[in-house]
Amino acid sequence: MADASTISPSSTLVTRRTTLDGFVGELTDAPGIYLRDLDPLTTLLVRTRNSTYRVIVSHGTSVLVQGGRFFRDATAARIDGSGFGGSLLKTGWIGVGFRMEIVADGERIITTPVREVTVDRGRPALLH
To the nearest 10°, the Cα dihedral for 95, 96, 101, 104? Predict the structure, then answer.
């Protein structure tokens, strides 16, 4: 019988972040923002590795989003939360280092990792 430190050829290694304990550990000190804590019409600028998104909070996790290649125009959407692009997700939250999961028109969009989230105080909330 193999001891706990033995890895056999049939073993499958998974990264720690794909386990529940690993995911929770990664979230513990991660900077981010809960959408439900924001007032309606709060405007966020979310910069990911590949794109910048302008997000206007409607209510809770309902938003208008514009940016990236999928949202050229302001689009009604829901931000389900952030995760690593797998089955684990911190709901209603945008976290730095994590991928946003956005649902619009029945499609789920998973962004590249978020690099920065800022509240945009310099522009009006309405998109034209």
Answer: 100
Count other Cβ atoms within 10 Å, centred on residue 7: 9
Q: Taking the model in full, what pTM does it have?
A: 0.74
Label residues 80-104 b or e (16+ Cβ within 10 Å = b).
bbbbbeeebbbebbbbbebbbbbeb
Domain that holds residue 90: 34-119
Chain centroid offset of residue 16 CA: 19
Number of structural domains found in the chain: 1
Other beta carbons within 10 angstroms of residue 112's beta carbon come to 13
Q: Does residue 74 sit within a domain?
A: yes
Q: What is the pLDDT of residues 7-25, one digit of tens each?
A: 555 555 545 555 545 555 5
Q: Is 19 inside any structural domain?
A: no
The answer as to whether 108 is a domain residue is yes
* Model confidence pLDDT, tens digit, residues 65-77: 999 999 999 999 9
